[in-house]
TrEMBL record:
Name of the featured protein: Tyr recombinase domain-containing protein
Organismal lineage: Bacteria, Pseudomonadati, Pseudomonadota, Alphaproteobacteria, Acetobacterales
SUPFAM superfamilies with a match to the protein in the record: DNA breaking-rejoining enzymes (SSF56349)
Annotated GO MF terms: DNA binding
Pfam families: Arm-DNA-bind_3, Phage_integrase
Any GO BP: DNA integration
Keyword match DNA-binding: yes
Family named by the database record: Belongs to the 'phage' integrase family.
UniProt keyword list: DNA integration, DNA recombination, DNA-binding
InterPro entries attached to this UniProt entry: DNA_brk_join_enz, Integrase-like_cat_sf, Integrase_catalytic, Integrase_DNA-bd_sf, Integrase_DNA_bind_dom, Integrase_recombinase_N, Phage_Integrase
PROSITE patterns: TYR_RECOMBINASE
Keyword DNA-binding assigned: yes
UniProt feature coiled coil, ranges: none
């Protein structure tokens, strides 16, 4: 029979069969298969090397009879020419499947931007890292590579990373080395999981080598620091003071909470999740430290009445931040004091004031200064190490495990001696005339 629309509309499958095929008399191999469920599909049947083969042309309704017949005629011509349409179609289907898979893989790779990779690295690889590394490494990568965060991680080029690290290294070579180390570790982790191919951070160069800082504030500088901090309003004035009095890390002091302080204000316990070595640390609070804390009024939300848990906060909701700007202002106050002292001295000597040297210390140098002064004052290095909660101190191994909670009395004495030294070198009224200038700096 010749397959026609009217004829196909009447075709049905016998109830005892799953399907039945009806062939066209006009084009050899052209047929329609009717199933027991009523579906109808156009086919082209042929034989190749003694084997029966079949190509599905399409469903009746999607194709008209004329369209299906035309396809069958084309395929028959290819069979006569020696081709094998079924194998060709299979190859085409495989090619399409491979193309779609490649497209999906590319889309997934493109979706893994540098920013997303940093997030995944932080959530998975850094779970067991120290709290400070877990926070600092992703934070430095995001801030220093902010212009590249939207780029697909796999497409990041060595030249791009090199150019950015060169920019950072101009003013902050140590930071550039940190970024390289963090990036290399992150991409190494991603490579092992087949998330990327190649590590752009492994081939970049940061000129020079890591130089350990050995800067220690002189007694004069320590006095200048304390006097300037005493003039600064909350939250940064108390922040700078507590930093010097406790010798703890910047982020640990900034994140201090009221519930971490003992009821009698004798001790401050920094929880493990906020310390660099991941272990809780007890800090003795000297009389001077308690006076600073007593001068802080707990922040209360005017709308909700909620009392802030943070000792130092600009919002009441988060710990104090913005250290760079605050430190610049602290140093500006110190330079004001120096300028006035210099001008007065030159005036008395009948000379013109000379240019003042820039301050070369960082906040972290306070900790090194504290250890140095303690050594000068005959405090044992094992006690000084415990005051600072160094990851690696002078005592290690099993001894360190058993002595983790010891030296509390010695540490308290050491901090009291250190604080007395700070207050002694700070005794001066040289900045009392700076009041108006201080107000201007902190507006």
């Amino acid at each position: 029979m010749k397959l026609t629309k009217s004829g196909i509309d009447l075709l049905t499958c016998p109830p005892e069969k799953r399907d039945v095929m009806f062939s066209d008399d006009e084009v050899k191999g052209f047929a329609v298969r009717v199933t027991s469920k009523g579906s109808k599909v156009f086919l082209f049947n042929y034989s190749k090397n003694g084997r029966s083969k079949r190509v599905k042309l399409g469903a009746y309704g999607d194709l008209t009879v004329a369209q299906a017949r035309k396809l069958a005629e084309t395929l028959r011509g290819r069979v006569i020419a020696g081709e094998d349409p079924a194998e060709d179609k299979k190859a085409q289907a495989q090619a399409v499947e491979a193309m779609l898979a490649a497209q999906a893989e590319q889309a997934a790779a493109d979706a893994l931007t540098l920013g997303v990779l940093i997030d995944r690295w932080q959530e998975n690889s850094l779970k067991d890292a120290s709290a400070s590394y877990r926070k600092e490494a992703p934070q430095r990568l995001r801030s220093s590579l902010s212009a590249l965060l939207a780029r697909p991680a796999h497409a990041l080029k060595v030249a791009e990373v090199q150019a950015r690290l060169d920019e950072v290294a101009q003013d902050h070579p140590t930071n550039a080395r940190r970024i390289k180390a963090y990036g290399r570790a992150m991409y190494g982790w991603a490579e092992k999981r087949n998330l990327v191919e190649g590590n752009p951070f492994a081939r970049v160069i940061v000129e020079g080598r890591e130089v350990s800082r050995d800067r220690v504030l002189s007694d004069r500088e320590l006095g200048e620091y304390w006097r300037a901090a005493a003039l600064i309003p909350y939250p940064f004035g108390p922040f700078f003071q507590l930093l010097a009095l406790t010798l703890q890390r910047r982020t640990e002091v900034a994140g201090m909470r009221w519930d971490e302080i003992a009821p009698d204000w004798s001790e401050w316990t920094i929880p493990a999740e906020r310390t660099k070595n991941g272990k809780a640390h007890v800090v003795h609070l000297s009389d001077a430290t308690r006076r600073v804390l007593a001068g802080i009024h707990r922040q209360v939300d005017a709308k909700t009445g909620h009392i802030s848990p943070f000792v130092l906060s600009g919002t009441g909701k988060t710990p104090v931040s913005g250290f760079s700007v605050a430190t610049k202002r602290l140093k500006a106050l110190i330079m004001l004091e120096r300028a006035e002292n210099e001008a007065e001295g030159q005036k008395n000597a009948g000379k013109n004031p000379s240019a003042l040297p820039a301050l070369g210390w960082h906040l972290h140098d306070l900790r090194r200064t504290g250890v140095t002064v303690m050594a000068r004052l005959k405090i044992g290095p094992h006690v000084a190490d415990r005051v600072l909660n160094h990851i690696e101190g002078t005592i290690s191994g099993v001894t360190a495990v058993y002595q983790r909670h010891e030296f509390l009395t010695e540490r308290a004495v050491a901090l009291d001696i250190w604080v007395a030294h700070v207050l002694r070198v700070a005794e001066s009224s040289e900045v009392e005339s700076l009041g108006d200038k201080v107000v201007a700096l902190w507006r």
